[in-house]
Design a protein that fits this description.
Largest sheet: none
Shape: flat
Number of helices: 2
Strand content: under 5%
Structural class: mainly alpha
Number of domains: 1
Biased composition (Basic and acidic residues): 1-14, 68-92
Region (Disordered): 1-29, 68-100
């Protein structure tokens, strides 16, 4: 019974990790970005809010940088997969040409 509960807990943890890494973070990041931008726009004018503005801008820049990094990583992975596929096709073409 204990082992079964432990396995169920481990499976639940794995599923939660998969859900968290499978793009759910992007939606959360977008929501956070919208929230921060609304807070920035909602600040009244005045020098006493400059520190808040700076902090919000830094948080927004951090989120945007993370988005850019993920986009670049995804594009790089796609390019590498395409190169690998082209290399396989070329190897197959060479093998077919040699067998004839």
């Amino acid at each position: 019974a204990v082992r079964q509960r432990r396995e169920q807990a481990e499976e639940a943890r794995r599923q939660a990790l998969l859900n968290r890494t499978s793009g759910g973070g992007a939606t959360d990041r977008n929501a956070e970005l919208v929230r921060l931008q609304a807070n920035l726009e909602g600040l009244p004018a005045g020098a006493q809010y400059n520190a808040s503005r700076t902090g919000l801008r830094k948080q927004i820049a951090t989120i945007q940088a993370a988005h850019v990094r993920e986009t670049r990583q995804r594009e790089q992975a796609q390019r590498e997969a395409q190169r690998e596929q082209e290399a396989r096709h070329e190897a197959q073409r060479v093998a077919n040409a040699q067998s004839q």
